[in-house]
Design goal:
The protein has 883 residues and is an alpha/beta fold. The chain contains 33 helices and 23 strands. Strands 8-23-22-21-9-18-20-19 form an 8-stranded mixed β-sheet, sandwiched between helices. Strands 10, 11, 12, 13, 14, 15, 16 and 17 form an 8-stranded mixed β-sheet that branches.
Length: 883
Amino acid sequence: MQAAQQKTNAGVSPELTGAAGKTSEEVFQMFTTALAGLTEAEAEERLAKYGPNEVAAEKHQGWLYRIYVAARNPLVILLTVLAILSFATDDIPGGTVMLLMVVLGIMLRFIQETRADNAAAKLKAMISVTATVVRDGQSKEIALQQLVPGDVVKLCAGDMIPGDVRLISAKDLFIIQATLTGESMPVEKTDARDTREGISPIEHTNICFLGTSVESGSATAVIAATGAQTYFGKMAGTLAGQQADTAFDRGVKRFTWLMIRFMMVMVPLVFLINGFTKHNWKEAFFFALAVAVGLTPEMLPMIVSVCLSKGGLAMSKKKVIVKRLNAIQNFGAMDVLCTDKTGTLTIDHVILEIHCDVFKNESEEVLRDAYLISHFQTGLKNVLDRAVLKYTELHRELSVDKHVKVDEIPFDFSRRMMSVAVEGPDGERQLLTKGAPEAVFARCTHFESEGEIFPMEPILVGDLIEQVNSLSEDGFRVLAVATKKLGKQVTCSKADECDLVLAGYLAFLDPPKDSAAKAITALRQHGVAVKVLTGDNDLVTRKVCSEVGIHAEKIILGSQVETMTDEQLAEGVETTEVFARLSPAHKQRIVKALQKQGHVVGFMGDGINDAPALRAADVGISVDNAVDIAKESADMILLEKNLLVLEEGVLEGRKVFVNILKYIRMGASSNFGNMFSVLGASAWLPFQPMLPLQILSNNLLYDFSQVPIPTDNVSAAQTAKPRPWAMGEIAKFIVFIGPISSIFDYTTYALMWFVFKCSQHNLAAPLELAGRFLPTADPDHTYAAALFHTGWFVESLMTQTLIIHVIRTNQIPFIQSRASWQLTMTTLLIMGIGAFLPYSPLAAPLGFVPLPGLYWPLLLVTLACYLGLTQIVKTWLVKKRWV
């Protein structure tokens, strides 16, 4: 339990939480200061010790180091080695393609890593202000950076809290801490000791945090932590660190290592078999190198980049701006969406929902009284006052301009109410009071209902409190309104707030969006569970969530997260949909707990309090009007804070990943099958089954045939559910589909060997070829070998290219599902090139010869059988749910 608390409180100074339970005198002793503040000498000494009061120190890593980090990817290393070997063996085109893929991959990663420090810079810019500090007994304005622990600071309305502070004195102090908690209402703070245990540090009533601000009131406080040691500063430090790999990054790495393991087995075997059987180790090396290139998914970076870029453009048309391309796949793979409440599920605007009498009957009189109070009270209008003043038509109906404020009794925490004395057009004066219901009840002797006044019997007080509690449990923020006739009285005091007549209640709420319930239902239908993570209170959260269809019977509070171990939290996040009163650290910890359970997690938020969770999630989502730090931490920005926009983005992300998976399945299974064919042919044939240049040409043409994959059509069935990386399924697909091509490769070997007499090393070339094909002394360059190479090259290219259309869909190709026209045209083009090459001017340089007429009908039979068998095996894999 203690370990769990330490993890969640990692961003809070222990001195600060310790100071919450101490008296003012003990706080002064704790920080070696006094009400007169520090001396300038003491301040300079502490500034040297603790450093400037900056939320994040600059941590700019050199560009060389960032390039090094980007180049550590195993696929990048593999492609670089093969590119070097290709250049060394005069394979300029192959080496160039691989080198371009390397540069593209490194540059994309480099650009993404460069963004990592921007969040801390935004935080720093947000608090470049001054503060009122007491030094040597005198108040002065100094730059925020010069403040140190132990400084005594003065706070008033509009001030930003200059550090993590413990209040020493406070008068009518309300703090806006929505940036840390997401709670829309200002929070009341006092200077009294707070000895409660097991609560979140943000819930302490006498502690304020850097990054929040004063809405009203005044206070004196002692700074407990500055700069990087503040809650805010430690949050900024985590944002400036290197971002953890997302589910997509991890999936690409796992696939790369899978192919490397295949290669580590196949390539040495090919090298050794060819070396021992052909007794030419140099050619065996070049042949093994060609096999390695053939096994390498060198087009993967390009295919991935094009798919992601196309997806990014498509999503931008659907009001989703993609900052980090890799996040698109994570968006599609997401099976849990964590979101804040305010502005996402709600309209992000507090409204006056109910104005009623004591029996909950709608009352226009209560609304009129509340309007006059909010209009005439001095000081800053809070969100509740602004909600009342939205009823602008009352200004004319009440003839407010003909009313005169006689006096005012300001709000204070001991009374928890405020009053204004108003004289109406008829000259009658009355005291209008609003405040916390229980505080107002205590000062009322009567209540009003339908124009009649009734005595406040003690037995009725319990019923009235139940009425208020029922509103509070429904998530409403409730204020009571009371009145009192003053006659000709001119001045008022707190003593006049007695013998009041209870008029009724005002109930405020940030109501749900009309689209929220529909969007949540749609996301669930697409396999995405929605969980609410909010800093707001549990009563309001339960009300909103229940209205939009989220199960809120069980709510885990931040105080409970504090005491949970990682194992307990992992169990809790699986069975709970709503979490309330959370700190930023709680949100981050919940996201990580979901990830440990195997979920791909998206997080949607727009405040400073959301930044750590946005950073930790597989895909962070913010909105264009969010605070800068949230937008910097996010992977995607919504142009409209609406879950319906998210639904469209999720489907687009799944389309992107489906097309990426097509390339992986096609390329990996085809290459894997070809290498089985190479192993068998190497052991059986007296010559190499295909020349290195032919292998590379085959691979290049096949890669080109897959370039249009990002444009391919995707069926609704393929986007119906989340699409996470399933390396086990990919491996099974490779193992079962890949060797099918080897079956037909071997039948082609048999045809070339027995039907077309390639077994006869001295097979003479036809007379029409005598002038262009001249056998050499090298047995690998006889007409028989060239005929064999040509026959297998054409069959291999045709089967690989055509099988794309079987692998690209779980349905019946050409009938139930058709590829995009771009992919179809490329397939026809590459197959045409394959058929033309043996008769083209390039035939001799490539070592090809024209094929006999009988070869072509036999090839058609081979292609038909190959397509049929692959479709049967694929259907079986689909039934096994291995695809």
